[in-house]
Structure formats: structure tokens, C-alpha cells
UniProtKB/TrEMBL annotation:
Any Pfam family matching the protein: GFO_IDH_MocA
Entry protein name: Uncharacterized protein
Superkingdom per UniProt: Bacteria
SUPFAM superfamilies: Glyceraldehyde-3-phosphate dehydrogenase-like, C-terminal domain, NAD(P)-binding Rossmann-fold domains
PANTHER family referenced in this protein's UniProt entry, alphabetically: BILIVERDIN REDUCTASE A
Species this protein is from: Solimonas fluminis
Domain GFO/IDH/MocA-like oxidoreductase: 126-252
GO molecular-function terms, A-Z: nucleotide binding
Residue ranges of domain Gfo/Idh/MocA-like oxidoreductase N-terminal in the record: 2-118
Lineage: Bacteria, Pseudomonadati, Pseudomonadota, Gammaproteobacteria, Nevskiales
InterPro entries xrefs: Gfo/Idh/MocA-like_OxRdtase_N, Gfo/Idh/MocA_Oxidoreductases, GFO_IDH_MocA-like_dom, NAD(P)-bd_dom_sf
């Protein structure tokens, strides 16, 4: 059985991991660690696990899941990687593209498998939309539009969402939506991304809570034209939660939340397609991500190198 160590025992552990990491024949949470002793003890009780100092957890666990605020991720990942070990880092991955490259390179050098938790990649409509793009249904991607917003109710124990520069709506909600769009468009595999023609409007310095931007992204294969982006994320305003991938021969529209449907529009007309996969609730997708990573079955979609481009976009926009 794979013994899991949880580093960080805040809100996401109590709300998501506690419901999706039950004791299974293949793996179970054996160790938890947090600088807040009360949080560590609470999580230990949830999983019937041992609350331990970080060094002890790193020494004993077979796999490590890092759920702390983003500013701590680089140091914790570097402490956790070792030969043969799976390390899963929650989103947002790193606070800079340079840090993302450092940990990806360090994991490869140590023969450790490093993954990033972006469970929306398992949503049925996201998988269907990605397949349509890969099949060339809309031709080369030319533009991407997206928005997501609503009253913010998440209560991070650390308070990083209102204090940490990487805790604002762009890094929190926006990293989900942007990652979904990049994944669908196949742009998460682009080796190096560059942003140009950047226009940003936000309510305040980071961490901001309402964020709008227009920009272009370069970095695809030879002959790839720049892809134009337009986005709006908000913690104040209820926005349409959607992603639109526009190609030279049509467009694909999908919900930013869990769904099964995709609208495909081409010169021949518009049609709504439904994915074969069906899930009753969002946490089923969260658990599916964990199974794929921990059991090394379909884990490639979550490999850390695929999130360097996303980190480049987040860092560049937040500093604009």
C-alpha cells in the first residue's frame, strides 16, 4: 500500500481531500504535517493518520501531496522529491516561471515524478473539447475567450487569498480557467510561451479580486500565429462561466465548471455534443485525478512540465 504524506492541512484538505482520499487497498494517508498544530491534529483525526514534523513525513511517506499556500511550494517540492517518489503539488503550481522550471528540472534529475493538481482537466466536456481540437475540427487555434466569477466564499485557513500576491482571483480562480483553456487548445505542451500586446485592468495591486486582460501568446510550433486571449475573473461579480476556443474554421464553447456538453460551431452549422463520461458531482473528478496520479494510470496530463506555460502567463499578467 502506498503511504501518503499530506503537507498542509487547511481548507482544501478538510473540504476535498478528506472526501476523496479514503483508505483504499492501493493507498492511504499515513502522515500529515502543518505549521498550525491544531490543523494538523484535525487532519490526523480525519484520516486516522499521524501528525508529524515535516522532516519525518518527508523521510517516511511513499508519496507526498503539498497543499500549502503557493509562496511555499518551491521549497516544499525541493524537500520532497526523491528517486521513485510521486509528489503532487496543488495549484497554483509556482509563483514564477523560473521556479517552475527549477523544480521540474530538479525532479527529473532526482528521478522523482512531479505532478500538479488541476482536476478540471478530468471534466467530461474538457476532455471532449480537447479531442475536437486535436482532431483539427476547428483548424489552428487563433483566439481564446473566457470568464468566471461569483461571490468569493472560500475560507483559506492561512488567509493567503487576501494577503499573498499569488492569492488573488487571477492565481486562484483564473489559474483553473486558464489551465483548462490551455489544455483544451493543446497549448500546455508549448515549450516556451511569450506574451505581447498586454492590456490589464484590475481593482487593486495583487492580490486583486477583479481582473481583466487582453494579450497575445507566442511559442507554438513553426508557422503558428499568435493566439489572442481575452479574460475576466471576479470575486465580486457573477460572470458567465465559459471558455471559447476560436479556430480558423470554427469555434468550441464549453462551461468553465463541470459539464458534459460542448457546442461546436462551423460553417456547416452549430451542434451540441455530449461526452460519454458522466459524473454525479465535482468531487468524483477530484478523486479521479488523484487515482490517475497515485496509481500512475493516465497521469501524463498532470505532469509538472505542462504547467510552466500557465505559470508564465500568471506571472506576466500579475506583474503587468
Amino acid at each position: 500500500m502506498i503511504s501518503i504524506g499530506l503537507v498542509g492541512c487547511g481548507a482544501v484538505v478538510h473540504s476535498n481531500y478528506a472526501k476523496t482520499l479514503p483508505v483504499r487497498s492501493e493507498y492511504s494517508v499515513r502522515f500529515v504535517s502543518d505549521i498550525n498544530e491544531a490543523q494538523a491534529q484535525s487532519a490526523a483525526a480525519l484520516f486516522n493518520a499521524q501528525a508529524t514534523p515535516l522532516d519525518e513525513l518527508v523521510r517516511q511517506a511513499d508519496a507526498i501531496i503539498i497543499t500549502t499556500p503557493p509562496s511555499t511550494h518551491e521549497d516544499l517540492v525541493l524537500k520532497s522529491i526523491r528517486s521513485g517518489r510521486v509528489v503532487l503539488c496543488e495549484k497554483p503550481f509556482m509563483t514564477s516561471a523560473a521556479a517552475a522550471r527549477r523544480v521540474v528540472d530538479a525532479a527529473a534529475a532526482a528521478n522523482s515524478e512531479l505532478f500538479v493538481g488541476h482536476f478540471r482537466r478530468t471534466f467530461p466536456q474538457v476532455r471532449l473539447a480537447r479531442d475536437l481540437v486535436k482532431l483539427g475540427t476547428i483548424g489552428q487555434v487563433q483566439a481564446i475567450r473566457m470568464s468566471e466569477g461569483g461571490r468569493f466564499t472560500w475560507k483559506a485557513v492561512s488567509g493567503y487569498t487576501v494577503r499573498d500576491p499569488a492569492g488573488g482571483v487571477l492565481w486562484d480562480t483564473g489559474s483553473h480557467t486558464l489551465d483548462t483553456a490551455l489544455f483544451v487548445a493543446g497549448m500546455d505542451l508549448w515549450p516556451d510561451l511569450e506574451l505581447s500586446k498586454i492590456q490589464v485592468r484590475k481593482d487593486k495591486a495583487e492580490p486583486s479580486h477583479d481582473f481583466k486582460a487582453r494579450f497575445e501568446v507566442l511559442g507554438g510550433k513553426a508557422g503558428q500565429s499568435p493566439v489572442g486571449f481575452q479574460l475576466h475573473f471576479s470575486r465580486f461579480e457573477a460572470l458567465p462561466n465559459f471558455i471559447e476556443i476560436i479556430g480558423e474554421r470554427g469555434k468550441i464553447s464549453l462551461s468553465a465548471g463541470m459539464d458534459t456538453r460542448v457546442r461546436l460551431a462551423t460553417a456547416e452549422g452549430s451542434i451540441v455534443l455530449s461526452a460519454e463520461e458522466q459524473y454525479a458531482e465535482i468531487l468524483e473528478c477530484f478523486e479521479l485525478q488523484l487515482r490517475r496520479i497515485l496509481l500512475r494510470d493516465g497521469q501524463e496530463d498532470f505532469a509538472a512540465f505542462r504547467f510552466v506555460g500557465l505559470t508564465t502567463i500568471l506571472e506576466t499578467l500579475s506583474n503587468a
